Amino acid sequence: MAVTVAALLLTAACAERTVGGPAAGVTAPPPDAATPSTRPSVMDSEASGRIQQQLDPAANAIEHLGASYPGSYTGQSVDIPGDRIIVYRKKDPAFDAALATLHTGVPAMLRDAPRTRAELFATQSQVATLVGHTTGYKIWTVGSGSDATWSRGVVEVQITGDLARAKRELAAKFGDRVQVTIGEPPVG
User: Fold this and answer.
1) What is the SS3 assignment for 181?
2) Distances in Å between the alpha carbon of 56 and those of 31, 101, 104, 161?
3) Quick check: is 106 in a domain?
4) Which pLDDT does position 66 carry in this prediction?
5) Number of H helices, E strands in the chain
6) What pairs with residue 75 in β-bridges?
7) pLDDT tops 90 at residue 177
8) 49 shares a domain with 24
9) How far apart are alpha carbons 36 and 43 in whole angstroms?
10) I want to staple 21 with a disulfide (CB 3.0 to 4.6 A). Which of 34, 107, 112, 171 is the partner?
11) What are the backbone angles phi and psi of residue 123, rounded to the nearest 5°?
12) Is residue 1 domain-resident?
C-alpha cells in the first residue's frame, strides 16, 4: 500500500518519533517537524521508482508486524519525498520496541492515533450496514484507510443529500468515530 504523503501529514497535532534508519533507535523529531519537507517536491520518475522499491519491502514488513499488534497498530503511509514510512499507532511500548528492532533500513516516523485499525474497521462495518437504508441522504462511500482518518481516528463517510441530517443521525449512532462529508456518486 504505497501512498505519497503530502505536506498535510506534517502537522503539529500528531506526536512523532523516528524509529530505525541510519542510526538505530528512537529519536525525537526536529523542532521544525511541523514544516514541510525541504526536499524537492518534484522528482523524476526514475528516482521515485528507486525509492519506492526500497520503501515497499519495509512497508510490507511493518504491515506484517502491525498485524501482530492489533491493540495498537492503525496503519501506515509511504513518504517517498521523505524517504520514510509514517506509522500510525496507539502508544504501546511493546509495539514501538518491536518496530525499532525490525531493521528495515528505512526510517519510520511514529504518529499517535486515537483508534486502532481494528476499531476503525469495526466502525466502518457498522456504517456500511446503513448503505441503502437511510432517509434524506444516501451513503456513497465508507472508508478508514487514509492518513487523515488514521491521525484523527475517524471513518470517512461520503453522502449525497441532506448533509445536516446525515451528520446528526450518524453522530447519534457513532459519536466522533465518523466524519461525514458530501461526496459524488461513482461515475459509470
Assistant:
1) strand
2) 28, 18, 10, 40
3) yes
4) 97
5) 5, 8
6) 88
7) yes
8) yes
9) 16
10) 107
11) -65, -45
12) no
CB 149 within 8 A of CB 126: no
Cα 24 to Cα 43: distance, rounded to the nearest angstrom? 27
Question: What's the total number of domains in the chain?
Answer: 2
SS3 148: helix
Domain identity same for 89 and 155 = no
Segment holding 76, helix H or strand E = strand 73-79
Instruction: Mark whether 15 and 108 lie in a shared domain.
Output: yes
d(CA 35, CA 8): 9
Q: Distance between CA atoms of 84 and 89, rounded to whole angstroms?
A: 16
Q: Which amino acid is it at 175?
A: G
Same structural domain, 100 and 15: yes
* Rounded distance between C-alpha atoms, residue 142 and residue 87, angstroms: 22
Q: Are residues 38 and 94 in the same domain?
A: yes
Provide, for the chain, the percentages of residues in helix, strand and coil under a 3-state DSSP scheme, each rounded to the nearest 5: 35, 25, 40
- Same domain? For 71 and 130 the reply is no
123: amino acid identity, one letter = T
Instruction: Read off the pLDDT of residues 110-157 as tens digits, 9 standing for 90 and up.
Output: 999 999 999 999 999 999 999 999 999 999 999 977 888 889 999 999
Q: Cell 466522533 identifies what position?
A: 176
In one-letter notation, the amino acid at residue 38 is: T
Domain range for 159 = 117-182
* 68 and 152 share one domain: no
Domain end position, chosen among 56, 89, 112: 112
